[in-house]
Amino acid sequence: MAYFPAFLKFDDKSILIVGGGNIALEKLTHILNFSSNITLIAKDYLLQTKSLIDENNLKFFKRAYEKGDIKDFDIVIVAVDDFNLQESIYFETRNHNILCNCVDLQQYCDFIFPSYIKKGDLTVAISTSGSSPAFAKNFKQYLLKVIPEDVEDFLKELKSLRTIIPKGKERMQLFDKKVKDYINSWDKR
Ligand SMILES: C[C@@]1(CC(=O)O)c2cc3[nH]c(cc4nc(cc5[nH]c(cc(n2)[C@H]1CCC(=O)O)[C@@](C)(CC(=O)O)[C@@H]5CCC(=O)O)C(CC(=O)O)=C4CCC(=O)O)c(CCC(=O)O)c3CC(=O)O
Ligand SMILES: NC(=O)C1=CN([C@@H]2O[C@H](COP(=O)(O)OP(=O)(O)OC[C@H]3O[C@@H](n4cnc5c(N)ncnc54)[C@H](O)[C@@H]3O)[C@@H](O)[C@H]2O)C=CC1
């Protein structure tokens, strides 16, 4: 079954990352763009992970995961190099109202991380449903070259016009044309 693409409200969720290595660092970097309510538990932390923790004043514990650690969290990301621990934390979360992501075992993921672009209010998320994360990453890099920097300002302008112009057919047509013209102009840049 395919994954349902949705944009989650993150700033009211408490997030636990188990692990402090390369992949925990990647997941942490991505999540920090949307929330700072993040706690980490790991036996060891990469220097770079520890710097991000300090810069963002995050709560962290330098120790092995213990059963029950998940219970106060809404979202748990298990970024450890231990498949048994990934599996057992996933099954622990089944007794709670917790969304779980295990970095190696897709069958134990309630959600998967997309590759994404964020420019102001524009977010483009790319997933291959786990078929090829490398494709998701490289396709993002391609799209980054296509989408112009000023898209952020263009969206601001549209947002403000939507508050001024009354709703209705005319407004729909006006916005449709304005956006078409803007996107068509990318080819000529
Ligand atoms: C299922 C998923 C679960 C999840 O992590 O949520 C998952 C799982 C696994 N990834 C693996 C490998 C790699 N992952 C990346 C990169 C990214 N992986 C991400 C997401 C996801 N990875 C989810 C599916 C996303 C989708 O496609 O829909 C991205 C998009 C987002 C992010 O990490 O935040 C981020 C790019 C971010 C960016 O730059 O934009 C690279 C490329 C690289 O690092 O250069 C490689 C090596 C090349 C390759 O394998 O393709 C392995 C095997 C590990 C091994 O071989 O040991 C597994 C486990 C398995 O498949 O068994
Ligand atoms: N989903 C994805 O995008 C990808 C997933 N992976 C997978 O991610 C996993 C992690 O990879 P890396 O971060 O590179 O490994 P790493 O060796 O850099 O980090 C592993 C981390 O897990 C922690 N850890 C291990 N056992 C623990 C325990 N019992 N309690 C608390 N912390 C514990 C270690 O202290 C360390 O911080 C690997 O199994 C790899 O196959 C790899 C590439 C991409």
Automatic annotation (TrEMBL):
Which keywords annotate this record? NAD, Oxidoreductase, Porphyrin biosynthesis
Give the reaction(s) catalysed: precorrin-2 + NAD(+) = sirohydrochlorin + NADH + 2 H(+)
Q: Which GO terms describe its biological process?
A: siroheme biosynthetic process
Protein's pathway: Porphyrin-containing compound metabolism; siroheme biosynthesis; sirohydrochlorin from precorrin-2: step 1/1
- List residues of the Siroheme synthase central domain: 120-138
Tell me the GO molecular function terms.
Answer: ferrochelatase activity; precorrin-2 dehydrogenase activity
Any single Pfam family the record assigns to this protein: Sirohm_synth_M
EC numbers, comma separated: 1.3.1.76
Q: What's this protein's name?
A: precorrin-2 dehydrogenase
Please give the organism: Aliarcobacter vitoriensis
